[in-house]
Amino acid sequence: MDMQRSVDFESAAELLDATSNSIARNRIGVVIEISGSSSQIRLDSAAMERLLDADDSSLSMGGQIGSLIKVKVGSNWLMANVRTLKADGDREGSIIGFIDFLGEGDEERLTGKIYNFRRGVTRYPTPGSGVYPVTSQDMKQMYAAEDRPHIEIGTVYPTRDIRGALFIDALLGKHFALLGSTGTGKSTAAALILHRICEMAPQGHIVMIDPHGEYSAAFKTNGALFDVSNLAMPYWLMNFEEHCEVFVSGNRDERQLDVDILAKCLLAAKAKSRASEGIAKLTVDSPIPYLLSDLTANIQAEMGRLDKAGDSAPYMRLKTKIDEIKSDPRYSFMFSGMLVADTMAGFLGRVFRLPGDGKPISIIDVSGVPSDITSVVVAVLARLVFDYAIWSRNEPQRPILLVCEEAHRYVPADTAGKIGSVGKILGRIAKEGRKYGVSLGLITQRPSDLAEGVLSQCGTIIAMRLNNERDQAYVRSAMPEGARGFLDTIPALRNRECIVCGEGVSIPIRVAFDALEEVKRPASSDPLFSQLWTESGGEDEMLGRVIKRWRSQGR
Q1: Is residue 446 one of the residues assigned to a domain?
Q2: Do 248 and 395 touch, CB atoms closer than 8 A?
Q3: 276 and 294 part of one domain
Q4: In this structure, how many other beta carbons lie within 10 angstroms of the beta carbon of residue 146?
Q5: What is the C-alpha separation between 420 and 397, in angstroms, rounded?
Q6: Beta-carbon neighbour count of residue 36 at 10 Å?
Q7: What is the dihedral of CA 224, 442, 499, 445, to 10 degrees?
């Protein structure tokens, strides 16, 4: 028995020595300066070159910009990202690197493997501590999703088999943003993430605003598709501010008088509705069905009460605008006389997927909505999501994810001191939505054009390649300090690659997105000029069909 114990002890000691020797052989440098999250290391260029031919893709990247290194502190390993490199002027063959510490893990004593990895640093290393490259085995431990609910979206760079995961509760609970220049695969990445969420939560509640009609093709089998032909969004769901954006025109001096007249006449029209009976505190914001004809009749009646010296222009302006919208077939999806019935419960149930019936996502295609009221339609949908969450607090909770493509169009930077209703409600959801179970997903190609503070409210940022320096700087300023090294690689990302930082991941990661099946991709592919400009024939018939649709303003 004692003999067996002695043999086991010797075997363990040999394994420990072999592990220590293996780690020591891979040493590529030392720590030379410690300063909070960012510190300096000195790397041996010859040691880095020896790693280039390693079979392990993570090991072969050791010490390069964007790679991970590790430093031993007691029984822990600290992980850091290499942010910048420069030649060491004092020592030939040496390189100075700046690193950002990301987190730490415990060391398994016999094998040297890392386990129990967590974000943050408990103890910093001292200058002179050895620097080692991170292996793929280390990265598996670092990026392990454990037992937290998650979705897998791709492969962690530079490995071939380590999966990049997003923690679903943190991703949705604290909002997210997907950023990327045109042509980087942003729409396909958005479709991939939403498909993964739908697969994980078939009884979910997702509303997506689609300004270009791209996503209907991607969600034919597992989504409810809405456009101007079947949306049937009642006009009376608008609050007073949204009514003003649609009905009130004219310059600033005229506007206030028009607004006062509209408020008085709108309240009277709502009070006339049967649905308002029993409501003690009826306001112009109450979603009460009313007749547009009652509203115009009230305006006409108020104008009739004017004395001869009174100015009838504001009344005529309002009445004319309302009559124009009523008679314009482009607005019929919202201002049709058929939408006067109290269909609020049915509308909310259809759009919010209550119940989901296995189709948890609503794609709202607003490409066919007249451009002058597109922002109002988006404002109404966003506000309904938020108001529903507020007024359903005493009911079983049904969190809703609102995804807004081309977000910079709806939440623009406040350059002129004027923010529309859509900007106000999306800004409010960004700040307060998580308290009420409303999650916001912003997709944009111009993050620098977003309203100040909105991006910083997004707990998770998924950044694809950004070509504009202003956009890069804006994203960098919204990121935690430890992610700066990753963000410096944003201009060098390939198509369908991204950097993920924030609450949705354990530490910042660079991910190559999974390929998406053809039937699940959005209709956003770029035209192939070299091929399409070799084709000819049928142009006369095509022009006829196009002009017919153009004139009828329909598809």
Answers
A1: yes
A2: no
A3: yes
A4: 10
A5: 30
A6: 10
A7: 100
Whether the model pTM is above 0.90: no
What are residue 212's DSSP bridge partners? none
CA distances to 141, 304, 387, 417, 451 from 108, in Å = 12, 88, 52, 58, 47
On whether residue 269 sits in a domain, the answer given is yes
Paired strand residues for 69:
80, 133
Position of tokens 């699940």? Answer: 520
Q: Any residues with CB less than 8 A from the CB of 211 and at least 6 apart, and which?
A: 366, 367, 374, 405, 406, 409
pLDDT tens by residue, 174-208: 999 999 888 888 899 999 999 999 999 888 899 99
> Is residue 489 domain-shared with residue 461, that is, in the same domain?
yes
Adjacent-strand bridge partners of 106 = 76, 115
Give tens-digit pLDDT for 4-35: 444 454 444 443 344 444 455 678 899 998 88
Six-digit token string for 326 = 């009523």
Q: Are residues 137 and 171 in the same domain?
A: no
Kindly state whether residues 366 and 470 are assigned to the same domain: yes
**Cβ atoms 472, 490 nearer than 8 A:** yes
Q: Same domain, yes or no, for 107 and 221? A: no
Query: pLDDT at position 3, please?
Result: 46
| Alpha-carbon dihedral sign for residues 513, 516, 520, 525 | positive
Domain CATH for 413: 3.40.50.300
Q: Where are the alpha helices (DSSP H) in 143-251?
A: 168-173, 186-200, 240-247
Q: Would residue 40 count as lying in a domain?
A: yes
Look up residue 408 and give its amino acid.
H
Low-confidence ranges of the chain (pLDDT < 50): 1, 3-7, 9-22, 308
CATH number of the domain enclosing 118: 2.40.10.170
Q: What angle do CA 130, 134, 135 make, to 5 degrees?
A: 135
Domain end point (choices 332, 360, 393): 332
| Count of structural domains, the chain | 3
Rounded CA separation 259/535 (Å) = 55
Beta strands 29-33 and 38-44 are antiparallel
Phi, psi torsion values for 8, nearest 5 degrees:
-60, -40
Rounded distance, CA 180 to CA 414, Å? Answer: 22
Tell whether 177 and 316 lie within a shared domain.
no
DSSP secondary structure string, 338-394?
GGGS--HHHHHHHHTTSS-TT--EEEEE-TTS-HHHHHHHHHHHHHHHHHHHHHTTT
**Both 77 and 98 in a single domain?**
yes
**Which residues make beta-bridge pairs with 177?**
442, 461
Say if 489 falls within a structural domain. yes
Boundary residue ending a domain (297, 332, 367): 332
388 shares a domain with 501: yes
Contacts of 50 (CB under 8 A, 6+ apart): none
Give residue 71's domain range. 22-143
φ, ψ of residue 150 in degrees (nearest 5): -155, 165
Give every CB contact of residue 516 below 8 A, 6+ residues apart in sequence: 188, 191, 192, 195
